[in-house]
């Protein structure tokens, strides 16, 4: 009976301890994870995907219609300005040039001498007609011939004079430097220009990126046949959400990592910020200049860009998950929850700067309870 009483008493004591412990924990409140406000350097960055590209890309097209007869280069080859890239069929243009060259030769060798000879002949005939008219005028005064005979002579003189005028105009037109020669020379120059355009050459020094036609294909005027990356420095281009535009500035430093070479990050500098927003995507184009050329980079290579937009060497920082809203956090003071209004400065990837509202060493809640209320008793558990 005594042993039973002792056992009962022990159980009762244990139950009382458990109940008191539970009541104590209930009174102390739930456990919340907290971190202390610390002073640390902080960097605010904008991270975005981008691509490696040449500063200038040139699309090579044809100005004439023709069939590709010869391809002189392949993708990935370096080309020099003026170097042949493609040759188009030129039979029609060659024939036009030859025809005009023959016409010019005939003009100088046959037409011009013949025009001068015709002019001389017309002048001779005019002189003869004038002498005959004068002779008949004398005979008419003597009454030897009728007036009709004199009128016929004057008519022949008039016709001879017209022939001289026509011969002079013709000789002037076909003379060296005349309108006929000028017209033929202009037509020949135009035909030669068209013939030259059947030889597609590199407009600049650069790297051949893409080729859109091959031998046997028809090249249409204005059709892009080849794409060149102009020689010179390459750059990184990225489309950044317009919400980050206020953080961007020329000259900001960036770290770039190529997806193909993640172990070889390299530096770049913001060199261009587009003056307009892409309305369809809500982005702004940003270009970054490389500090030094890198052999492993390729055109259109995908890269990850981290632009440093702000830095604090010694800032009061809290983890981003502690932000209850953009301007408030929950803190534990004297074992109770309090909502504190703060002002946030630089925002980093994991931490943000607090410029007003908190002191170093204060505890901010990083897993705010769903039922958090002002003055709620809690047990703070500090995490690193």
Structure write-up:
The protein is an alpha+beta fold and 384 residues long. The chain folds into 4 domains: 29-43 and 313-382, Beta Barrel (conserved putative lor/sdh protein from methanococcus maripaludis s2 fold), CATH 2.40.420; 46-55 and 231-311, Efflux pump adaptor protein, beta barrel domain (Elongation Factor Tu (Ef-tu), domain 3), CATH 2.40.30.170; 62-88 and 200-228, Beta Barrel (OB fold (Dihydrolipoamide Acetyltransferase, E2P)), CATH 2.40.50; 91-196. The protein has 4 helices and 22 strands. The chain has helices spanning 2-28, 91-142, 147-174, 179-196, and strands at 31-36, 38-54, 57-61, 66-71, 78-79, 84-88, 199-201, 206-211, 218-219, 224-230, 234-241, 253-258, 261-273, 283-290, 302-319, 323-325, 328-333, 336-341, 343-347, 351-356, 363-365, 379-382. Strands 1, 16, 17, 18, 21 and 22 form a 6-stranded mixed beta sheet that branches. It has a 6-stranded antiparallel beta barrel with strand order 2-11-14-13-12-15. Strand 17 (328-333) and strand 18 (336-341) form a beta hairpin. The chain starts with a helix and ends with a strand.
